[in-house]
Design brief:
This protein is mainly β and 115 residues long. The strands form two sheets. Strands 2, 4, 5, 6, 9, 10 and 11 form a seven-stranded mixed beta sheet that branches. Strands 1-3-8-7 form a four-stranded antiparallel beta sheet, with no helix packed on it.
């Protein structure tokens, strides 16, 4: 019933920027808690990138602090991840997570950063 749709990935040069978006459908925003992204690079386990609560609290992985910024629009059930000064190490599949009665995951979007 709940669908999480994410977009914004692509190919970008190091130092450039991308903005990911993630929208949750089929759930009312009062029931939607944390939203954010995890990422998985080849050979690595999935790791947290950034999370934002309904109250606006933000959590970032140390590797992206100062470069990435997460925000959300509760009316739209949408979260955004602004990725600035991207690095090749940011290359991964980014999966949006939306927490409600359970965790809902997006399909993933590929971010590839070239040197």
């Amino acid at each position: 019933q709940v669908q999480v749709v994410e977009s914004g990935g692509g190919l970008v040069q190091a130092g450039g920027s991308l903005r990911l978006s993630c929208s949750a459908y089929g759930i009312r925003f009062p029931l939607l808690g944390d939203m954010g992204w995890h990422r998985q690079a080849p050979g690595n386990q999935r790791e947290l990138v950034a999370v934002i609560g309904r109250d606006g609290r933000e959590i970032y992985a140390d590797s992206v602090k100062g470069r990435f910024s997460i925000s959300r629009d509760n009316v739209k059930n949408t979260a955004y991840l602004q990725m600035n000064n991207v690095k090749p190490e940011d290359t991964a599949v980014y999966y949006c997570i939306c927490r409600g009665a359970r965790d809902y995951w997006g399909q993933g979007t590929q971010v590839t950063v070239t040197a």
